[in-house]
Amino acid sequence: MAQDTLTDASNYTDFFITAVLTNIAYWQNNPAVQSLEVEALDQEREGLVRAILYGLTVPEAWPAVYQLIETLSPYIERRGYWAVWQQVLDQALAQAQQRDDAARCVVFSLLLARLLQRQSKIKQTIHHYRWAINFARQAGSRYNEGRACTNLGYFYIELGRWFRAKVLCCYALDLFEQIKNEHGQAHTHNHLGVLFTWQGIWHKAQLHLESACAIWEKMNDHHGLMRGLINLGTLYILSRQLTQALHCFQDAANYAQLTGDELELATIYMNRGIIHQYNGNLAEAEHCIRSAEAIYQKYSNLSGLAQAWSNLGIAYLEQGRALEGGQFLQKSLNTWRKLDNRQGELKALAGLIEYEFMRQDHAQVTAKLKELKAIKARYLPHFQDPYLNTILQKYHYSLTE
Q1: Alpha-carbon span 380 to 198, nearest angstrom
Q2: Separation of alpha carbons 308 and 303, rounded Å
């Protein structure tokens, strides 16, 4: 009887392994997976994730499973299925570490960092990018070292840590040029373009962003080109070339819909709202920003929400709806401070200065202006933003008096 039980158990294990390997092979060869067809994958997502989780328990499935995870990660990120995918990536990274597979450790650390970055989890994001850099050096992978450096550099741009960002991105660009990797060059040109945009060095920003877009267009990379166009559009907004900006965002919206990236679509709505704001179309501005806010709420994206609330607050102030405007600006300021984001903090503070002036609370105007100037001087002396600059010029004499 004991012998029969042992045989049954052995047969069951063999059957389970065979079934898992067959299932993984089916998904690997599935046309929807190979082309990342959004609608088909949305319908099959639960079965796919289940197959991967089972695959991670079978040693023989490891090569096929890690390839499937790498293939599917861009789709999962864009569609916002982050909680379950973080479990997948955590398990995959643990498996790679157990196998002492430095090459896979790099990849899974990078994917985790990117996923955490979308969720505005600052410390964990930095931690995983640093892990990825160390694993890449262990594995001797110059491409992945550059990839981790440029992505961490971009994250530092968002946090306003511009010196670190420039060092990392320039180092990465040099690596990518040495190994003649166009994909890495495009991403790093894009990151440097964003950095120079926020520093107000617009000619350098435009050169880098146009270089990134040209490479992505040549590679037929729709998702990369979408991001480059968004950043080029932002540059045009800041330099008050609003017609060119609208063209960029229209093209970017087409690519966002093609790739199914809702979060980037929210960014496009947001920027369209800002353009309408500058053109005095305040009702249309509010509609666009509200559309962006709804998407950010759906994905619990705090940095997106903070930006939406800041722009909504400013739009309401311009409509004379001071109380609503002040409430949104305060929510934005609180969230930016929670995220340790100085750029966002400065813009929200600028809006609150305008709000206090509308309330005729001149003591608060002066206090907030002092606070804004101190933060800018200490952290971001070269930060350029048209709204912020307008507020500083408009209320400069309030502080002097």
Answers
A1: 10
A2: 9
